[in-house]
Amino acid sequence: MEKHPQKARLDVLRTRCRKARLRVTPQRIAVYEELCRSRNHPSAEQVYSLVRRRMPTISPNTVNETLLTFAQIGLVEVIEGFGSSRRYDPNLTVHHHIHCAECGAILDFTSENLSHLELPDEITREFEIINARVVITGICSTCKKK
Ligand SMILES: [Zn+2]
Ligand SMILES: [Zn+2]
């Protein structure tokens, strides 16, 4: 997610908050920035430990609530977590995920082929497709070396 420089990210945050009539607080900025900076689709706990470094007084609950609010206003997406905790994704463009079965990392990738999947009739008969994301599971190079 290093595609968007910091200023562009803040613009996205401001626009979405304004639309939802939410104030752009320092807490919201910090949570959003740390989420965007992390490539790994962090959980609320992970975002909290990142935000705490620059904002020691913030509570885990505030971080959690902020992320849920972001999800409600469509600023971030809640993604499949492969574990107990929800993971958050600030990347709203069409993309797919590669998940490491060992360390739980979830990284983004794009693929023209996967973005134009042909779906079976039984699916398209019953569903209007809104979004298609492929999740691949593997073992990342760091975990493979262990
Ligand atoms: Zn790994
Ligand atoms: Zn993603």
Description:
- This protein has 146 residues and is of the alpha+beta class.
- The chain folds into 2 domains: 6-89, Arc Repressor Mutant, subunit A; 96-145, Ferric-uptake regulator, C-terminal dimerisarion domain (Dna Ligase, domain 1, 2-Layer Sandwich), CATH 3.30.1490.190.
- The protein contains 7 helices and 5 strands, in the order H-H-H-H-E-E-E-E-H-H-E-H.
- The strands form 2 sheets. The protein has a 3-stranded mixed beta sheet, with no helix packed on it.
- A hairpin with a 5-residue loop joins strand 3 and strand 4 (106-109).
- Helix 2 crosses helix 3 (44-54), helix 2 (26-37) packs across helix 4 (60-72) and helix 3 packs across helix 4 (60-72).
- It is globular.
- Bound molecules: zinc ion (2 copies).
- One zinc ion (ZN) is lined by residues 41, 89, 91, 95, 97, 108.
